[in-house]
Amino acid sequence: MNVAVCADVGSTYTKAAVVDLDGGRLVAAASAPTTVGSDVLHGLDAAVAAATAGLGGRDVPWYVCSSAGGGLRLAVVGYEPLVTAQAGRRVGLSAGANVVHVAGGRLGRAGLAALRAARPDVVLLVGGTDGGDAETLTHNATRLARARFRVPVVLAGNVEVRDELRALLAAAGVPVTVADNVLPRIGVLAPAPARAAIREVFLRHVIGGKRLSRGGRFARLVRAATPDAVLTGVEVLADALGGDLAVVDVGGATTDVYSVLTPDERDSGPGQEVAGTLWRARTVEGDLGMRWSAPGVVRAAVEERLLAPGEQDGLAAAAAVRAADPAFLPADAAERAAERRIAALAATVALRRHARGAATGERAGRDLRDVRLMVGSGGVLRHADPGDAAGVLGAVLADHAGGWPLPRAARPVVDVDYVLAAGGLLAADHPGAAAALLRRHLGG
């Protein structure tokens, strides 16, 4: 049997899966606590050893993604806030980054201080369409060079000054990687080259810089940030099935939403986005989670008017318990009911925000009406009773009061076997296996 190991080193658990590359089948899976406090290789090796125990000691290739240590923190600096900076933000999210800072216009002393305070792992420097304005991009690159900024920079702005600015930054000792312009023309968003460059910088600079492991083995194993791998898996699934789909991933600290929409007449006409439309997008809601961010779920639900009369106090107490003890596990029916309710609220609010477009900067929002498949992910859904997990997704799909177009007739499914990340990791080297794996487990 021709197999590979796909592993995700998460913030809490490391998951490993053995995939048959010939048939796209899941052979075995296991997990172990992520050992951030010592060396993440300990947890990774334990998970892989458990998953491969039945292979008789065979040497198989490893495909690894990671969000340990907080994942990838990205700052975006653009020509102005409404167009190139937002275009850069959308690209950063699609690359699996946690976008911690967005700035538009010429960097001054205060702007540079705010950029440093955000503690980014990478800065995405954008600005100007190709052949358009170059002054702001040049000013910002010069400012970073003179400040001897040591954070790696991905330069993805006006191509006419790209080589000049790369030389300027490199001469000042700033690690710089260049990519094609994220916004080559008004209304045309080109995320792929910058997304690839951000991935390269993540692997070259960030993984080793987080000191998650001694030596260089972990850095050599990791191929992508986990959200980047998951989005790739979502894209593979969408291409394999055809049509629009969405994924809501409810985690302990954040709730991520991914959507793949089919380009059509929405991509032109008077309502066209000047910053371009990202048809394959991801948003991150840092105040919505099952543990660390559970109180934020209750606050957001109040703002969205999702709670029943008299529900707030009890749910707030349950959320506080979870935030105080991220290792909390529900032990009785009441605690499990609170768990389901928090999950449903987190997923509902996250999908509303994703559809409204505020998190991606899309003024027209994202039209999710034609989504035909809604995938639920995250430990709270994977480890739940199937009926409970279906209830969480059912609540999301029954929500039509948010003011933006949500799915009209989507089929819900839970990524119980955690194959989205595995499919994304295999997509480049084994596209057939990746597509078959995702179709088998999620395609129905």
CA-CA gap between termini:
25 Å
Total domains: 3
Helix content: 25-40%
E-strand count: 15
Outline the low-pLDDT stretches. 265-272
Overall morphology: globular
Report the CATH architecture of the largest domain: 2-Layer Sandwich
Radius of gyration: 22 Å
Strand content: 15-25%
Question: How are the elements arranged and paired?
Answer:
Blueprint: E1 3-9, E2 13-20, E3 25-33, H1 40-51, E4 62-66, E5 73-78, H2 84-94, E6 98-104, H3 109-117, E7 122-125, H4 135-146, E8 153-155, H5 162-171, E9 176-178, H6 192-209, H7 217-221, E10 222-225, H8 226-241, E11 244-250, E12 255-260, E13 280-285, H9 294-303, H10 312-324, H11 333-356, E14 371-377, H12 379-382, H13 386-397, E15 411-414, H14 420-426, H15 431-442
Parallel strand pairs: 1-4, 4-10, 5-6, 5-7, 7-8, 8-9, 11-14, 14-15
Antiparallel strand pairs: 1-2, 2-3, 11-12, 12-13
Describe this structure in words.
- By secondary structure, the chain is of the alpha/beta class.
- The chain folds into three domains: 3-69 and 211-225, 2-keto-3-deoxy-galactonokinase, substrate binding domain (Nucleotidyltransferase, domain 5), CATH 3.30.420.300; 72-207, Response regulator (Rossmann fold, 3-Layer(aba) Sandwich), CATH 3.40.50.2300; 226-419 and 437-442, Nucleotidyltransferase, domain 5 (2-Layer Sandwich).
- 39% of the residues lie in helices and 19% in strands.
- It has helices at 40-51, 84-94, 109-117, 135-146, 162-171, 192-209, 217-221, 226-241, 294-303, 312-324, 333-356, 379-382, 386-397, 420-426, 431-442; strands at 3-9, 13-20, 25-33, 62-66, 73-78, 98-104, 122-125, 153-155, 176-178, 222-225, 244-250, 255-260, 280-285, 371-377, 411-414.
- The strands form three sheets. A five-stranded mixed β-sheet has the order 3-2-1-4-10. Strands 6-5-7-8-9 form a five-stranded parallel β-sheet, sandwiched between helices.
- α8 (226-241) crosses α15 (431-442) and α9 (294-303) packs antiparallel against α10.
